[in-house]
Design brief:
By secondary structure, this protein is of the alpha+beta class. It contains eight helices and seven strands.
Length: 245
């Protein structure tokens, strides 16, 4: 899953939409505690414990920033921001799911970390767009319109994953530095970046109706330029989280 697609999915999830692009035939929701197998290590409550899995102290130690300067946000997980005059830090854990069993988690993990062509990504986006009007959670025209606009912002480009050794039972990183992790029956995603701040887009001479497109192009270019650092920092943070579990 690309960095830009991940951000769109978080926004869609805040509207109550199940994640698109994850049609592996498995339940993507946290399993109710009474339906977990007796051998399952993690309970369904883990989906609400993002800031316990990723504490301010862990972020502070991992990236050498003062713990009392971190800004914490709890949206579909737990996220932190920090900056000074020269650098910025983004660190987060999201999409935390306790599955019914290790086997269910492994199947789900395999489905969401499969590399896809641009055509396959576009097909999934088209499928998600076609289902928006059927979503009961989108009970107002404004919610439906917002969801459609968010999907329209996603660029259909190939998504590639690479295996990472030594993190949990399985770990894979996307080409934009998002790390997916499985530990027993628990799956989650990790993202991190510490480095230079993104340059401001040059809006001189740009018409108002084109400003959003210019800003998006600038953000996409910056994501590509910083992908190697995001990969390094994401893997670093994922190792730290699993080491504390």
């Amino acid at each position: 899953m690309s960095h830009s697609l991940q951000r769109i999915l978080i926004a869609l999830l805040s509207l109550g939409i199940a994640a698109c692009g994850q049609s592996a035939g498995n339940d993507v929701q946290a399993a109710p505690e009474d339906s977990l197998s007796a051998a399952a290590r993690f309970s369904g409550e883990m989906s609400n414990e993002g800031c316990e899995l990723l504490s301010p102290q862990l972020v502070s130690t991992t990236f050498d920033v003062p713990v009392d300067t971190l800004k914490q946000t709890k949206i579909q997980g737990c996220h932190y921001n920090w900056d000074n005059s020269d650098e910025t830090l983004e660190a987060g854990i999201l999409m935390i799911r306790a599955h019914k069993s290790d086997e269910d988690a492994a199947r789900w993990f395999a489905g969401v970390t499969t590399s896809k062509t641009a055509e396959e990504v576009q097909a999934e986006l088209d499928s998600a767009a076609g289902q928006l009007d059927k979503q009961e959670e989108l009970d107002t025209d404004l919610k439906k319109s917002t969801a459609k606009n968010l999907l329209a912002m996603v660029s259909a480009k190939a998504v590639n994953f690479a295996d990472i050794a030594g993190i949990g039972d399985e770990a894979r990183v996307s080409d934009e530095g998002i790390v997916h992790v499985r530990v027993d029956n628990l799956t989650f995603m990790v993202s991190a970046y510490k480095g230079s701040k993104a340059p401001r887009p040059n809006m001189q001479g740009v018409e108002i109706k084109q400003m959003a497109a210019v800003a998006k192009e600038n953000a996409d270019r910056w994501a590509i330029e910083t992908a190697p650092q995001r990969t390094t920092d994401g893997i670093r943070l994922a190792r730290a989280i699993v080491a504390e579990m």
